[in-house]
Amino acid sequence: MLNRRPQPLAMFIAVMMFAVGFVATADAGTIIASGQNRGLYDNNDDELGNAQQTPAGSLAIGERNSSTQPTTDELRYWLPFELTLSDRAEIATSSQVLLSINLVDKQNVAGYAIDIWYYTGRTSAVAVNADYQNADGVLINDAITATTANGIVTWDVTSFVKSEAALAGSVIVFNLQMDPADLPDENTTKNNYIVSTVGAAAGLEPTLSIIPEPATFALLGLGTLMLFRRRRMLRHAPALAALALAMMIGFNNAAQAATVVAASDAGRVIDGGGGFSAEFVAVGEPGSNNEDNEGRFIVFFTPDAAERIQIAAASEITLDIRLDRTGDNSADLAGFAVDLYGFEDVEFTGINATQYHQAATLVQADAFTAADGGQVDLDRSFDVTAFAKAEAARSATSTIAFRLQVNPDTLPIVDGKQVFWALEGVDFANGGAVPVEPTLSVIPEPATAAMFGLGALALMRRRRSH
């Protein structure tokens, strides 16, 4: 006889999936429109636009309200949103982006509607008069009509916002305008849609809402619970369906390959000597009988705009370096190690001698140790997530820079003995045939769902075996 009771594990999974989805959905980010929002209009009837006004909390789209300036060309609402690097990262990984505007009132709008137009490739939140008529196209026809209820009106603008937000320095810009544009030349009867603008009461200003992934889990969890309620005889089917979908989502995300950011430059600096690049660099004894201050390895990265967005949204970032080999006698390394430091709030344009002593923060102690002696082509990755995220977010041109140095830095004057070789350009041990420049690996979020699904399946299998 079939057990008609819901399985505890499957019930737990359904509840957890609902909770994860509910929390993710509730965590939507909000971007308020820029204070540069403007009303654009044309007061000489050439339909090209030649004037602006700054709204003070509301704007009448349509017939202008000044009896001294009659016009048949309506006032339009130029609506920009400026984005931070964090905004761009959230948009890039979001499931949906919504534009919301508060409709305050309507005045004689029978036969008229509001269309939402868009601009592409904008990098300034400042309107020019020609923006009155130079929008690139219609995004939403009849976005607001005579039958639209007053209050917050929301539209899905996901595709447009995602594509624009991925462009370096871009500003998201909309234009709300009346359709048809030809208005009766009447100043006693106004044909207007009145909307809230920047400066309106809190909660009424125009916004972009960024909804994170996944809201799907909440619906999936609810659906699974309902299946349990209605079809208890299918003991494992709901659980397996839920787990399968969780795994599919996770594997889909996990399949997104890590982005590899190439080094902008790398090289060795020596105290008392200049900075220079080399195909390989010796971290430690510089190979000079009259110098007991070690060589240090400097590497820096200058991510482009798209890479910065990916870094901000990443689950993990690693610095990947190859240790080509150690000194000729690994016993000479006893008591020495290589530490990894990061340069905070600096912008590198090249390698120079001043970076030898420049202040830096310890990121990873004992990155390489005497235990690595005798190895050739040792590839090692260091988790630099927090440091790299902070540095990439400082500005559009900030660098992510590191220094490898021997600890302690007082070395015996022994020619070329206390040496760790860190590769910059080619594989020295293998005759220079393989490129091994240091890189940053930016790993996307998340692969968690797949692991969750696999783990739960394993638990179910174990339970059944008992």
Written account of the structure:
- By secondary structure, the protein is an alpha+beta fold.
- 22% of the residues lie in helices and 33% in strands.
- It has helices spanning 8-26, 85-92, 158-165, 216-230, 237-254, 305-313, 385-392, 448-465, and strands spanning 29-32, 38-41, 51-53, 58-62, 76-82, 94-107, 113-119, 137-144, 151-156, 171-179, 192-196, 207-212, 259-262, 265-270, 275-276, 280-284, 295-301, 316-326, 337-343, 361-369, 378-383, 400-407, 419-423, 439-443.
- Strands 1, 4, 6, 9, 11 and 12 form a 6-stranded antiparallel sheet that branches.
- The longest helix is centred in the first third of the chain and has 19 residues, at 8-26.
- Residues 22-26, 251-255 and 447-451 have low confidence and may be disordered.
Shape: elongated
CATH architecture of the largest domain: Sandwich
Could you tell me the radius of gyration in angstroms? 30 Å
Number of domains: 2
Name the descriptors.
466 residues; alpha+beta; Jelly Rolls; 6-stranded antiparallel sheet; 8 helices
Detail the topology: elements first, then pairings:
Blueprint: H1 8-26, E1 29-32, E2 38-41, E3 51-53, E4 58-62, E5 76-82, H2 85-92, E6 94-107, E7 113-119, E8 137-144, E9 151-156, H3 158-165, E10 171-179, E11 192-196, E12 207-212, H4 216-230, H5 237-254, E13 259-262, E14 265-270, E15 275-276, E16 280-284, E17 295-301, H6 305-313, E18 316-326, E19 337-343, E20 361-369, E21 378-383, H7 385-392, E22 400-407, E23 419-423, E24 439-443, H8 448-465
Antiparallel strand pairs: 1-12, 2-3, 2-5, 4-11, 5-10, 6-9, 6-11, 6-12, 7-8, 7-10, 13-24, 14-15, 14-17, 16-23, 17-22, 18-21, 18-23, 18-24, 19-20, 19-22
Helix pairs in contact: 1-4, 1-5, 2-6, 4-5, 5-8
